[in-house]
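User: Design a sequence. Structure:
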């Protein structure tokens, strides 16, 4: 069967750190691949993260607007953040949702985990489904270098924003798509 996980791994011949920051580290590696190639690759080792599809009982989605350096502009996306060392995805989701939005989830369920680009980074983002009560918001607790504006948006408008490209973050598109394909349709 083609879609069966292989246990074969590459043999890392050399790995040299060329950059180290607080979120990721870059390595230059020489690897003998399982299929017999010797390749030179750059690897971005990245802290794991969570992204939360936070829904209300009346199908509104909590959306963040935040400045993002990679596009040098504000972006719309689901609440998301890095996991602390040793933290499990559920705990991280609860903490990050509260920090960024002021809301505590009524429940948390992991939908799946996604990788943004296995060819260059080991980053994994756990996509979490949360339910929130819009009347139970509290104070946000931003990181020192962060400012986020959050608002509840009807699910249909969020779907339209994904279709139009207004919401383009991979984790936001993936979480919404997973929810619509595998969870909502079964209700």
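Assistant: Done.
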């Amino acid at each position: 069967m083609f879609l069966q996980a292989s246990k074969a791994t590459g043999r890392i011949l050399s790995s040299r750190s060329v950059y180290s920051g607080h979120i990721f580290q870059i390595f230059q590696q020489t690897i003998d691949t399982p299929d017999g190639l010797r390749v030179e690759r750059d690897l971005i080792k990245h802290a794991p993260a969570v992204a939360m599809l936070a829904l209300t009982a009346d199908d509104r989605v909590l959306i963040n607007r935040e400045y993002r350096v990679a596009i040098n502009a504000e972006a719309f996306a689901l609440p998301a953040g890095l996991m602390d060392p040793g933290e499990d995805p559920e705990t991280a989701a609860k903490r990050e949702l509260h920090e960024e939005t002021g809301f505590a989830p009524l429940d948390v369920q992991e939908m799946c985990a996604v990788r943004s680009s296995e060819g260059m980074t080991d980053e994994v983002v756990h996509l979490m489904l949360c339910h929130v009560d819009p009347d139970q918001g509290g104070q946000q607790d931003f990181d020192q270098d962060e400012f986020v504006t959050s608002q509840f948006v009807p699910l249909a408008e969020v779907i339209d924003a994904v279709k139009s490209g207004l919401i383009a973050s991979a984790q936001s598109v993936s979480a919404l798509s997973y929810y619509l394909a595998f969870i909502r349709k079964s209700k």
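Residues 3 and 128 are 25 Å apart (CA to CA). Strands lie at 11-20, 24-32, 38-46, 49-55, 60-68, 73-77, 80-82, 107-115, 124-131, 149-154.
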